[in-house]
Amino acid sequence: MSKTISPTQTQTAELASADPDRRVRVKQGVQWGRVAAWAAMVLLLFISLFPFYWMLRTALATNSQLVNGEQGLLPPDPTTLNLKQVLDLASAQEIEEAGTATTASINFFTALRNSVIVCTLITIGQVLFCSMAAYAFARLRFPGRDKLFFLYLTAMMIPPVFTLIPNFVLIKNLGWLNTIPGIVAPFFLMTPFAVFFLRQFFLGISREVEEAAVLDGASRWRIFRELILPMSIAPLTTLAVLTYITAWNEYMWPLVVGDSDGVRVLTVALNAFRAGTPTIAPPWAPLMAATLLAAIPIIVLFLVLGRRMVDAIGFSGIK
Amino acid sequence: MAPRIRIRALLAGALVATLAAGTAACGGDDRQDTGGPVTLRYGLWDSNQQPVYQQCANAFEKQNPDIRISIQLNNWNDYWGGLARGFIGETAPDVFTDHLAKYPQFAQSEVIEPLNRYIERDGFDVDQYQPGLAELWVTPDGRRYGLPKDWDTVAIVSNQTKLREAGITNEQLDNATWNPDDGGTFEDIVARLSVDKNGKRGDEPGFDPLNVATYGLGLDPGGLTYGQTTWGGFARSLGFELLDKNPWGTKYHYDDPRFIKTIAWWRHMIEQGYMPPLAESRSLGQAAMFQGGNVALSIDGDWMIPTYSATEDFEVHYHAQPAGPEGSWSMYNGLADAIWVGTPYKEQAWQWVKFLASPECQNIVGSKAVVFPAIPEATRRSVATHRKNGVDVSAFTSYLENDRTFLYPITDKAPQINLIVQPTMEKILIGSESPEALKDMNSQVNNLLEFSD
Amino acid sequence: MSVVGQRTTALPGPGTARPARRGLSRETRAALLFLAPSFLGFLVFYAYPSIRGFYLSFTDFDLLRNDGEWVGLRNYQAMLQDALFWNALWVTFKYVVINIGLQTVLALGIAVLMHRLTRSVVIRGILVLPWLIPNVVLALLWMWMLDPNLGIVNHYLDVVGIGAQDFLGSESQVIPTIAGINIWRHMGYTALLLFGGLVMIPQSYYEAAALDGASEWRMFRTITLPLLRPVLALVLVVTVIGSFQVFDTVAVATGGFGGTPGGPANASRVMYLYIFQQAFEFNALGYAAALSVALIVLLAAVAAIQLRLLRAGESDLA
């Protein structure tokens, strides 16, 4: 790794300086361009991170400090009361004294469990069924294939608000309102993006291995399971990560079909919590504590998966 | 690694998760299979009112052992969206608190139950309420969609410390006059109460309207369409009527010169630095700014008394709105309880609505001093309770005694009209449109109303 | 859309469909099985609701009444005369231009920085972090940070001497502010997508260019950009479509605590929000469906133009 760095360094220096005489400069040894590039990077990192720090700082302050315009970079008097309130661990009296009483509890752990169940189901279903479909589109010959694929793609253009009501009515008729299956259903079998994404990848897999297997009399299903899928671990992981995060962040659909105690996912529970706050004095401190807690699971997942997750996202741009 | 994907294992995992989800979802419908008492869901948006209606529910359950009441609270912003989803998804509350701005559409879409036949059958007395309240809930075809539970008016709330510092007495504020040309003594008071960051008052030379520490008067940024807690009482005190007839008007009068002048005065107050700009009011809201000492006076409804009177840092008084040429006026509004047409328990729902509208429940509400109940006797109790708590609410009741109330405007297409009027009013208050734009806006509104089917 | 399907992928010759022979071939039957679950999902959750939505756009369907009558083209005629529709289009357009313009440039810059400065996973991870968090959460967070009275941003603007801004409360600033929030959320993610394309470019090209004494800017222009184009095209199409459908941030952040979203004074009433309000506040499902159809037509047109302009299919890398 270290060997490749030196040419890169000079190039970066040139990039950032954008100076006609850059080569002379670089030879002087002071790599101002590189310094500037790093400065830009540090600034970007700061911009990305600071709001999260502010969320944390707000969550640890008392509401009255906030309303009085306390703006110090550190909470003057850190308190865990807001976090406790969100987790239902604070007594009513404490909350009353802090002036942050709300009518709705976020039921954090229930919501967390629901989010995990919903996202896991969606990810498993979508990756499995879309990889099957993608395989058929990429590898199998059948009449009307390209037309059907085109249809799938046009579905990508359809704004969710357009299909929201008919889907809502369908879920209602199935008796799935306010159930986990109702929240999962529209994403479980396919999304156009997932099919498109995996097809792109399957197209790139060498045909020869597969044809050899066909000659050996292997069934398509066996080929798919024992050849194609193992070769596609990387894009499948990518898709799984993307699907999981997208499902985690989904708001409108679970709000519409699953806004009742017991089935709320985190985003909806957070909204219910916000809706339960009085309109007169927004209790920012507990609200930020709630947003912080809602963000933590994904951040933890991120810390655990780290490199794999980053690689997975970067991968999705490659066709 | 040798990744042999075990699809069966994955599917098994999915199945287990679904089963787990199934148990999680069971909470959703707890009403179907129980042979025990019927549980009615009752929708409410004001958290201040939940405790007293819980008391009513307890009393009701004692008398009706086979009915249980479960109160569902949702903040105003999410209340109506949740109701709409409930109507379509057939999960709406069986009984819910309804608002005059919303019920015409519910009636038109037939999602709320007309109460006429129940009222006739039980010989229920609809004349026991404060005059005018019950008739608000009758559509032109004679159907009655709610029984009044409370009423409200609007008054000026004052921060006594700020008043003292400015050398203004409560009597001065009680007897303030107003007109849209020079603002009357009311504008003088508000100016005096405004203080900039250098400590200069609004009526002193050198007052900096762009750096104000305390605004004399607060601004409620929502609801500019009907101006319940803003221009409503002021414009009416000039003799202005928004509708050709109310309820069920067919023409709006937003182009009336008296109205245009009133709004111009409102904007003038913001420009002078006597009132906070719209953006600032939106972020905190009027009541929070008042409690934080950023505004000295606010214009608000009696439903906010519990919030204002709980202020700890200073004393709070209530005053009738300033008197215009026609005296001191207030908008007069009330809530009612409605029955969802899709409830499987219509009879039980009616029993509960009837109880909510009865002296028994309204006296409970009155004795708690949260809102003014619709029955006069219960109103008196409420006033007495307030007095016992050291709160003088006569400002709110004065309008009824002097017969200076006007009703909340009721027409078709209220949400659509709101989408035209509110943005225009915001533009005027921000300063990006002149008050003359109201003329154009009025013809849009009337067009919309005329061509609605 | 066919362009995406066919051109970007360079279908291998033998893959094209043949006319059906007598009965179903073994392969066709296999394909049916492979496609069955996703096709069910497509029919139930995409095709049927879309057709139904299209039909509804010719009715005066009322959401609460759950009923409506055929009114022909009336919704579309009303739309053309609806000032709020044109306003929504204009507001959305402004948003898309600011959002996509800045975001693409920034993301490209970040991707190149990542590519040339460091391969650190930690840095990439931090930059992509905002994208991992739900929109609703971030909208609340920014609403708090940008609060005119209590927000930290205005506090420092005041300290620096610029003076407090209204941001979400100002007619002229609200759309740039919303665009800024979403740029903040997406720039790292978009950069990572582009970065994925950058690492595919053989290092030897740069080395050769460096030997020739080419400047970094010239290498960017002659190597990076052309070779990145297919990825860039894909990213642009996806982000533009997403950008036209901006909703969550506007819905949460512009309402304040007590107002209705879309303000001040219609300045942030984007298309998607207007459709949502027509459907769920006015219960005018028929009209909302007509607005949606207009949005779909617009999206399709924009995507088609983009793909043509960017010649997305031609991969210079291969």
Nutshell version of this structure?
The complex is a heterotrimer of chains A (319), B (453) and C (318). Chain A is an all-alpha fold and 319 residues long. Chain A is 73% helix and 0% strand.
Description of the molecule:
The complex is a heterotrimer of chains A (319), B (453) and C (318). Chain A is mostly helical. Chain A has a domain at 108-316: MetI-like fold (Orthogonal Bundle), CATH 1.10.3720.10. Chain A is 73% helix and 0% strand. In chain A, helix 8 crosses helix 11 (192-203), helix 11 (192-203) packs antiparallel against helix 14 and helix 12 (207-215) runs antiparallel to helix 13 (220-231). Chain A is globular, with a radius of gyration of 26 Å. Chain B folds into 2 domains: 9-151 and 334-374, D-Maltodextrin-Binding Protein, domain 2 (3-Layer(aba) Sandwich), CATH 3.40.190; 154-332 and 409-451, 3-Layer(aba) Sandwich (D-Maltodextrin-Binding Protein, domain 2). In chain B, 43% of the residues lie in helices and 13% in strands. In chain B, strands 2-1-3-12-4 form a 5-stranded mixed sheet. In chain B, strands 7-8-9-6-10 form a 5-stranded mixed sheet. In chain B, helix 2 (50-63) links the parallel strand 1 and strand 2 (67-73). In chain B, helix 10 (257-271) crosses helix 18 (414-430), helix 15 (359-368) runs parallel beside helix 16 (376-388) and helix 18 packs antiparallel against helix 19 (437-450). Chain B is globular and about 75 Å long. The N and C termini of chain B lie far apart (68 Å). Chain C is an all-alpha fold and 318 residues long. Mean pLDDT of chain C is 83; it is low at 1-21. Chains in contact: A-B, A-C, B-C. Chain B binds chain C through residues 76-77, 80-81, 84-85, 87-88, 105-106, 108-111, 221-222, 277-280, 282-285, 294, 415-416, 419, 422-424, 426-427, 430, 432, 453, and chain C through 60, 62-66, 84, 147-150, 166, 168-171, 255-260, 262-266, 277, 280-283.
